[in-house]
Design a protein that fits this description.
The structure holds two protein chains of two kinds. Chain A is mainly α. Among the domains of chain A are: 183 residues, Serine Threonine Protein Phosphatase 5, Tetratricopeptide repeat (Alpha Horseshoe), CATH 1.25.40.660; 67 residues; 90 residues, Up-down Bundle (Methane Monooxygenase Hydroxylase, Chain G, domain 1). Chain A contains 35 helices and no strands. In chain A, helix 10 packs antiparallel against helix 11, helix 15 packs antiparallel against helix 16 and helix 31 packs antiparallel against helix 32. Chain B is α/β, with parallel strands linked by helices. Chain B has two domains: 105 residues, 60s Ribosomal Protein L30, Chain: A (2-Layer Sandwich), CATH 3.30.1330; 187 residues, Purple Acid Phosphatase, chain A, domain 2, CATH 3.60.21.10. In chain B, helix 8 links the parallel strand 9 and strand 10. The radius of gyration of chain B is 20 Å and the shape is globular. The chains are: A mainly alpha, B alpha/beta. Chains A and B meet through helix 23, helix 25, helix 27, helix 30 and helix 32 of A and helix 8 of B. Chain A: One of its GO terms (cellular component) is cytosol. Chain A: It holds the Pfam family Vps35. Chain A: This is Vacuolar protein sorting-associated protein 35.
Chain lengths: 780, 299
């Protein structure tokens, strides 16, 4: 199957030739195989061997490409299995053919002779293990007789395949004659080194202009060489000790000495993949040593990266014991990488970064408690990049983004202000763009202005699709940065230090300009709010918590004011409101004045900047009397009449469920004010010109009335006023609805109205007598 | 009553014809043991239970399906009828569809709806718990209903990677032009979706109930408060999935919110709601079931 890529790039006539040759060979094989099987049926062993030898003779060709040769080889080995099974059967029945092993050696040509010898040898081994050791040694030595690369590779592959299950896999001195694991190792290693030599030699045969093609062919054949290593890894009795003292040195020696880039690259990769991680850990030094001695053309970084990734995956896998502490894994790798960078001045920035990225992955995955490792890597990377000065800004950005992403995935905490500073310095290309700072701020300013309604200005600014894409990129990067802010944490106890960290973060992040702080500062503010709450929760152990909370809120206040100045009124408004809510929860000295300050800032922002009238409703759970009336006032100044009506109605809730201090947390339930609000809302609704809209608003209002009537059930409040107004509204709605032309909108209003009436009915039917009585006034 | 009976009969015939197509062109396993096996291997796309399946068995299978996030359909008839519908001459209590073949049975019978919201990434949280991400895989969920406050684009992109059908309403921090309320119909269930900061007082059941009546829906989903809630009131259902990231909220300053989301399995006559909560590094799951009242007046 590994030939598939091959078939396309062969030129036409060659392919046709190949097909013809292959067809001929295959038909001969089929014929001979048929004859062989017939002879076996008739128990004529000698004739069968003759046919088998004829069949194997087809493998002597040197005209076939590796792909076709492989196909032929597969068919023949398939047929050879019949012969093997027959011989095995005969042997087990006790009908031993004398001297078969010598007999097959009389075959005329070396290829059929060796194939037959291997087949018979394996049968001998399977029948009695006595001479296993000698036969194996004999076979692998005999195979030296074929020195043509292609034929030799396949012959040895056949040897390897046949001996797959018969290699001795036991410790020495158990059985003297049948051999031990060290014989197996010798056998496979010899086979490996011979195959590798053949494979390397392959490139030197034929014309130089076909060199590319030969390289390609070699790449296709690499699997044959790798099988040796796989076989080695399957021997159970090879332990770490043996691997370190026997197997690895021999393999590495062969690899280093062959001096061929392709071979070195593949075999090193192979070693990493086939042997267990524990072995790699034990032999890291030797392996890295060998890496340093490889051909300069070998991409060492790929080898290192795959080794690092494998080891860090091993360390983080469930159930493993992690990396033993006596192996300074990180130091090994960082030294090695430093060496590589030093020795290869032409290393591309991408390679450099990918190396460092693998190292960071290792540091984060394996040494979770050693942040200094990460810092070290980052520092090296940074200095490396600075020194080289080869990174353009997009690359730099992607490196920084990768770094942040990595931190997020691993949940790496940044525990001190110094480290925050370092980190932000490292990713400074994301924090702000140097030089272009002023320009960006100006651009942001004009952009917002152009939103304000001057289309000419916007187009002059060149707000094309490019800047659109830029904006998206920026949003992505900055939100990444914002997410990282949540990792700036000193742990649960060091609250003062946490505040320091936040101050540092704000100082640096605030330099980003309007487009950036939108994403990066709100996380800081929210962290600060949370910090204030934590101070409050710890009030028993810290007497100065009041002062500290006050400081935090001053800090938040100035931060949010900064945001407001950056043309982000909406965001600032929200932050102020949330801030007021937090202040409300924490009873430090004069906390109500602070809350008032926050809210009044919010109101002033609201009046100055925001035209979208629906934002009103967020001032919900607030407590202070002047604010309440101010809210009503603001609500009635909204732009559109329906929104005015809705907002004023919503304000009714303020007078109902607000919990002022004087009542010790009870709801104030100011029915008079509620009634006023709703009446006012009704008046505003009646000023709407559109009848449908008016009906809609009235229906909503009826629902408000219902809400308050039901809420006040069981209390001694007199709601007859409310219910009678609601009754009047119902009558009005009925009147409007009857005159309304049928449309999708009016349908919807109808349904809503019906549902309301239905609900009121069900309440009056199910509820206690007082509610029923009240609802009766609604003239249902 | 007769009308309802007629409707359910018609629906059953519909399912029978789909089952026949699955039997012909798809791959199913029959019987309890094989059904459980396929669930354990995660191969089952849909599990069908006969109406007279013993309660203990039913709950076992439902539990397994919840873990493997495959849908369960409660077949209208008993085990004899289910056997007949599959073209078998024996009784079938439980079966699992491994491959629907040419039939659209999985899409029509199973409606897994993810209800999630209040991410507040990057303002208040860095990301949703990694264990949640591992739970939510593409291809199992048909609809996503999001209560808003996504803020960053990456959260929305993440939801869109789960399924193409994503509905979002606007939270108070969202810049995007999403609607304030939205009505989505899943199967026969009308679901209303809102963020909830518009309703005063926040999270008040009576206000929510009022909105449910205004939208004319069976189930109203709202967010904002960080508290997971599922309750019934005035003939309708209410669900609050809480915050997917457990984002800080000034209104709930006392305690740290628990990250949570909900999965709805919408059946013909009921909605099963699974609540996933991230508590102390582990995901805890609860199950709540609503019966959809057919008599619900929808005008």
């Amino acid at each position: 199957l590994f030939w598939q890529t091959r078939s396309q790039d062969m030129s036409g006539p060659v392919t046709e030739d190949q097909e013809k040759l292959l067809d001929e060979a295959l038909s001969v094989v089929k014929l001979q195989a048929f004859q062989m099987k017939r002879c076996l049926d008739k128990a004529k062993l000698m004739d069968a061997l003759k046919h088998a030898s004829n069949m194997l003779g087809e493998l002597r060709t040197s005209l076939l490409s590796p792909k076709s040769y492989y196909e032929l080889y597969m068919l023949i080995t398939d047929e050879m299995r019949h012969l093997e099974l027959y011989l095995l059967d005969e042997f087990q029945k006790g009908r031993r053919v004398q001297d078969l092993y010598e007999l097959v050696q009389y075959a005329g040509n070396i290829i059929p002779r060796l194939y037959l010898l291997i087949t018979v040898g394996v049968v001998y081994i399977k029948c009695s293990e006595i001479s296993r050791k000698d036969i194996l040694k004999d076979l692998v030595e005999m195979c030296r007789g074929v020195q043509h690369p292609l034929r030799g590779l396949f012959l040895r592959n056949y040897l390897l395949q046949c001996t797959k299950n018969v290699l001795p896999d036991c410790v020495e001195e158990e059985q003297e004659d049948s051999g031990s694991v060290s014989d197996s190792i010798d056998f496979v290693l010899l086979n490996f080194s011979e195959m590798n030599k053949l494979w390397v030699r392959m490139q030197h045969q034929g014309h130089t202009r076909e060199r590319d093609r030969r390289e390609q062919e070699r790449r296709e054949l690499k699997l044959l060489v790798g099988t040796n290593l796989v076989r080695l890894s399957q021997l159970d009795t090879i332990d770490v000790q043996r691997y370190r003292s026997v197997v690895l040195p021999a393999v590495l020696e062969q690899v280093v000495n062959c001096k061929d880039a392709l071979s070195q690259d593949y075999v090193m990769e192979c070693i990493i993949q086939v042997f267990p991680d524990e072995y790699h850990l034990a032999t890291l030094q030797d392996f890295l040593q060998a890496c340093a001695e490889l051909n300069p053309a070998v991409p060492v970084k790929n080898i290192l990266i795959s080794l690092i990734n494998r080891l860090s995956a091993f360390a983080t896998r469930d159930g493993s014991n992690g990396i033993p502490s006596d192996i300074p894994l990180f130091d090994f790798f960082s030294e090695q990488i430093a060496k590589i960078i030093e020795n290869k001045p032409d290393l591309s920035p991408e390679d450099l970064v990918s190396l460092q990225a693998a190292l960071t992955g290792l540091a984060l995955g394996v040494y979770k408690d050693r942040e200094d490792y990460v810092d070290k890597v980052l520092e090296t990377t940074n200095s490396g990049l600075d020194k080289l000065g080869r990174l353009d800004s997009p690359t730099k950005k992607s490196v920084s983004a990768y770094l942040l992403q990595n931190m997020l995935n691993n949940g790496t905490l940044v525990p001190s202000s110094e480290q925050v500073e370092q980190l932000l310095d490292l990713v400074r290309c994301l924090v702000a763009d140097p030089g272009a700072d002023a320009a960006a701020a100006a651009a942001a300013a004009t952009a917002t202005n152009s939103l304000g309604g001057d289309p000419g200005d916007g187009s002059a600014n060149g707000a094309g699709p490019d800047s659109e894409a830029d904006n998206e990129d920026l949003a992505e990067e900055q939100s990444l940065l914002g997410r990282v802010v949540h990792l700036f944490s000193t742990g649960p106890d060091l609250l003062d230090e946490q505040f320091g960290v936040l101050k540092t973060a704000r100082r640096i992040l605030a330099t980003g300009g309007g487009r950036r702080v939108k994403y990066t500062l709100p996380p800081v503010v929210y962290q600060a709010y949370q910090l204030a709450i934590r101070f409050h929760n710890r009030q028993d152990s810290d007497d100065k918590w009041r002062k500290k909370c006050r400081k935090i809120f001053e800090f938040c206040h100035s931060t949010v004011c900064g945001l407001a100045k950056c043309e982000l009124p909406n965001l600032a408004l929200r932050l102020f409101v949330d801030g007021a809510l937090v202040v409300d929860k924490i009873p430090f000295d004069q906390h109500d004045t602070v809350a008032y300050e926050f809210l009044s800032q919010a109101f002033s922002l609201y009046e100055e900047e925001i035209s979208d009238s629906k934002r009103m409703t967020c001032f919900a759970a607030e407590n202070h009397e002047p604010l309440r009336s101010q809210t009503v006032h603001a609500a009635s100044k909204l732009l559109r009449k329906p929104d005015q009506s809705r907002a004023v109605a919503a304000c009714a809730h303020l007078f109902w469920s607000g919990r002022p201090r004087e009542l010790q947390g009870a709801e104030m339930r100011d029915l008079k004010k509620v009634g006023e609000c709703l009446k006012r809302a009704g008046r505003l609704a009646s000023q709407c010109m559109d009848a449908g809209l008016q009906a809609q608003l009235y229906t909503e209002l009826v629902n408000y009335y219902l809400y308050f009537v039901l809420q006040s059930a069981g209390s001694n409040l007199d709601v007859s006023q409310l219910s009678s107004t609601a009754g009047q509204l119902l009558a009005k709605i009925r009147e409007i609805l009857s005159g309304l032309e049928p449309s999708a909108d009016s349908e919807h209003i109808h349904k809503h109205f019906e549902a309301t009436v239905e609900f009121a009915r069900s309440q009056s039917a199910s509820g206690d007598a007082t509610i029923a009585g009240l609802l009766a006034q609604l003239e249902l | 009553m007769t009308a309802a009976k007629k409707a359910s009969k018609k629906q059953q015939e519909n399912i029978n014809s789909r089952l026949a197509l699955v039997m012909k062109s798809g791959k199913v396993v029959l019987g309890l043991r094989q059904t459980l096996k396929s669930l354990r291997q995660g191969k089952a796309k849909l599990v069908i239970l006969a109406s007279n399946t013993p309660a203990l068995r039913k709950s076992t299978i439902e539990y397994y399906s919840m873990l493997s996030k495959s849908g369960v359909h409660h077949y209208g008839g008993n085990n004899i009828e289910l056997g007949t519908a599959c073209g078998r001459h024996f009784k079938i209590c439980s079966m699992a569809v491994l491959d629907a073949g040419d039939s659209d049975i999985c899409e029509t019978l199973v409606m897994l709806v993810l209800v999630i919201g209040d991410f507040h990434v990057p303002y208040r949280a860095s990301s949703i718990p990694a264990k949640f991400r591992r739970l939510l895989v593409p291809g199992k969920i048909q609809h996503v209903l999001c209560t808003g406050n996504l803020i960053g684009r990456d959260s929305l992109d993440y939801l869109k990677s789960l399924t193409s059908d994503v509905h979002v309403v606007r939270g108070e921090f969202d810049d995007a032009s999403w609607p304030e309320t939205k009505v989505v119909t899943v199967g026969q269930l009308r679901i209303g979706l809102t963020h909830g900061h518009q309703l005063l007082p926040w999270g008040d059941p009576a206000s929510l109930s009022e909105l449910r009546r205004r939208l004319g829906v069976d189930l109203l989903i709202s967010g904002h408060t960080r508290r997971f809630e599922a309750f019934e009131r005035d003939g309708g259902f209410f669900l609050n999935p809480g915050s997917a990231t457990g984002a800080f909220s000034p209104a709930e300053a006392g305690e740290t919110p628990v990250p949570s989301f909900a999965l709805l399995d919408v059946q013909a006559s009921s909605v099963v709601c699974y609540i996933y909560r991230f508590i102390d590094g582990d995901v805890a799951v609860e199950r709540v079931e609503f019966k959809i009242p057919r008599a619900n007046s929808r005008g």
